[in-house]
Amino acid sequence: MKRNEQLIENTWKIEDIYPNLDVFYKELEIVKTQSKELLKYKDHLTNASSLYAYLKGYEELNEKISDPEVIANQNEWKKLMKEHADIEEIVEKYREYKKIQNSIDDLKEMLEDKNPN
Known about the structure:
The chain is mostly helical. It is built from five helices and no strands.
């Protein structure tokens, strides 16, 4: 549904969030740039620092796509959501990896407790 199809009481006033349209569009450009930055990591996460940068960018993108003004601009929001979906798989795989790694660490600790030698 487009903004102009919404009831006025279900919309936000840009003036309540941003001092003017120039600031809003500047923020929008930042979101676009951030999403492009995240995509450059796809298939290139080869070490801890690149993974950390990717995850941090992913979290920043999450914040932006939750912003009411970004949501109000449906074309831009859809574009960002597609980019978000494209990178989400990598983040989920990393979370699975960390969960398994933590389980392995716990099991090792349990084995050491049972066999102190």
